[in-house]
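Question:
Now give any protein.
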Amino acid sequence: GETGVGKSCLAWQIALEVGREIPVLYYDFENGAETLLHRTGEICGGDLDRARRATKQVYIRDSIRSLDADLGTIKAPALVVVDSLHKLPTSVLHRRTGLDTWLHKFEGLCRQGYAVLFTAEKAKAFYGNPTSGGYKESGSIEYSASFGLQIEKEEDDTIKIWCIKNRHRPSSGL
């Protein structure tokens, strides 16, 4: 989705929901733990005990460097969230290749039983166009994703979520 449309909020809500059943590794490069925990407090209506229960199996990380160690501790099935794909560390000269390398690494995790959720920005040329493609700085995401959503904000601030890809079923629509 476009910048500021709510990708991180949706990813965090999904993480909290999934965290009720299985562990979640949440690699946050957008908001910071303080913001995520503040959102949790709002979701839980200020109930501290409820917020603690909601985050009991959700592990927030601010660096992807701990991924291998984290996977040694948190076994599949688990959810790995990367917010946001375009902020993964790569070489400046080989940015797209670096992101594609990350995508292949995460595809391997899926084969091991992990579920992986990415947030990603759309390239500005694709704003207002809910279609497959247009992911900022990565050509492989549209091929490697099993399921793709795009979030669009309308002029009246309505948020629309489009299914643009579903590897296992026909997909299109709002």
Remarks:
- The beta strands are 24-28, 58-61, 79-83, 115-118, 147-153, 159-166.
- The longest helix spans residues 95-111.
- The chain is about 35% helix and 20% strand.
